[in-house]
Amino acid sequence: MLNKLKTLVKELGPLNSLLYVVHSVLSNPTNGWARIERFLLVAQPVPIAPRLPPSRAASLEIRQLMPGDHLLTQCPRPEAVIADRYSQGAICLAAVKNDVLQGFLWLIHGGYEEDVARVRFVLPESGHAVWDFDVYVAPAYRLGFTFLKLWDAADTYLRERGVIWSMSRISAFNTGSLSSHGRLGAHSIGTATFIILGPLQVMFSSLAPRLYLSIGKYRPLLVLPDQ
């Protein structure tokens, strides 16, 4: 047990490790009714050069999935969540081969209403940034080029629209995602921590508003800084 705690502190740091332990103690017996969510808010530059040479994963098709696309049935997300994303104006880029969905990522302009905690992330008015979320690669393809192929396609899409930054939130408890974003050049622009007890939520953030208490459907607006 002590070795596990030492490893956790080494990977997440003292504060995030403490919050993760408290989250586990609260979430497991309450089935998520009581929990702590901590997000690191990051921005990564949209590169000019592709991450993969054209010869790599050449047979892998990247396409935009529209609402109702049959490939969405392979997406391991509830239908209601997918419908809500489209209603917000999000787009889904998918990696497909032989009609099999290998991975996907979502992008949205303007702002995004988070579905893990009650908060709306608002992008800078300059229009130079987009919000990316739910980047997923199926386990069978995680050792291949699917992840980088997806991001190359996303970068092309963003460059064509004058976007130079992609912003997102990462769970402070997810070391894999933290490492992946770090390799893509992401840097921190803030943090947001949520203590959730059913309909009651308290947010502590490094961005304004720094403290926000909400009940039910009400949610704070976090305006992200321009880069």
CATH topology: Aminopeptidase
Q: Please give the number of β-strands.
A: 12
CATH superfamily: Gcn5-related N-acetyltransferase (GNAT)
Low-confidence stretches: none
What general form does the structure show?
A: globular
Element-by-element helix/strand order: HHEEHEEEEEHEHEEEE
Radius of gyration: 18 Å
Strand order of the largest sheet: 2-3-4-7-8-1-9-10-11
Mean of all residue-level pLDDT scores: 92
CATH class: Alpha Beta
Helix content range of the residues, please?
25-40%
- Our measurement of the CA-to-CA distance between the termini, rounded to an integer number of angstroms, reads 42 Å
Question: Biggest sheet: strands, sense, closure?
Answer: 9 strands, mixed
How big a fraction of the residues is strand?
35-45%
Question: Please, how many domains?
Answer: 1
Number of helices: 5
**Structural class assignment:** alpha+beta
Quick structural gist:
The chain has 227 residues and is an alpha+beta fold.
Descriptive terms for the model:
227 residues; Aminopeptidase; nine-stranded mixed sheet; 5 helices; 26% helix
Write structural notes for this entry.
It is a single chain. The chain has 227 residues and is of the alpha+beta class. The protein has five helices and twelve strands. It has a nine-stranded mixed beta sheet, covered by helices on one side. α1 packs across α2. The protein is globular, with a radius of gyration of 18 Å.
Strand and helix layout:
Elements: H1 2-12, H2 14-30, E1 34-45, E2 61-65, H3 79-87, E3 91-97, E4 100-108, E5 111-113, E6 120-122, E7 129-137, H4 146-159, E8 165-171, H5 175-183, E9 187-197, E10 200-205, E11 211-215, E12 221-223
Parallel strand pairs: 6-12, 7-8
Antiparallel strand pairs: 1-8, 1-9, 2-3, 3-4, 4-7, 5-6, 9-10, 10-11
